[in-house]
Prior knowledge:
Elements: H1 2-8, H2 15-26, H3 33-43, H4 46-51, H5 54-58, H6 64-85, H7 95-102, E1 113-119, E2 125-133, H8 143-152, E3 157-163, H9 173-187, E4 192-200, E5 203-206
Parallel strand pairs: 3-4
Antiparallel strand pairs: 1-2, 1-3, 4-5
Helix pairs in contact: 2-3
Amino acid sequence: xxxxxxxxxxxxxxxxxxxxxxxxxxxxxxxxxxxxxxxxxxxxxxxxxxxxxxxxxxxxxxxxxxxxxxxxxxxxxxxxxxxxxxxxxxxxxxxxxxxxxxxxxxxxxxxxxxxxxxxxxxxxxxxxxxxxxxxxxxxxxxxxxxxxxxxxxxxxxxxxxxxxxxxxxxxxxxxxxxxxxxxxxxxxxxxxxxxxxxxxxxxxxxxxxxxxx
Length: 213
């Protein structure tokens, strides 16, 4: 399996083949094929296995908390990896660029999370800050923290973003009301709210492009 990966990468691997290879490093000197199949059968796909809570992973026969913690690393490492590739200074001068910039920031995040992207006068990122994180569909946006973060970053404009875990990237009435409240508060200190992006898995919606902003 290792030689096959080193020679050809993962393109020809099925979900259970990839999981089998990963598990080899957590439970060495064991045939991990059966365990990989057991996990795929339980959760349905490789991504579902890697996104599953530690407690549920550990409950599968042959896994345990050590292996469960090891499997949970991968989605978090993927998020850090993509974020590292998109350092501050990237220019976000289109909604398409903004969407692609934000999607990786929600990899492996099970709860609703609000981000604030601060931009300079040339739409270059000067910082991306987590404003709030909470239980699913329970986050209340702090307008005060948004203003404080934007001022501290000396932002000319900002982009607000939040995710809809296990949902659709469709703005709710509360999303629209909150967006208007943030826009008005920022206008008082001459900072422009460029957009509010809602992310759901690999999909995203721009409130500006949708004529809500």
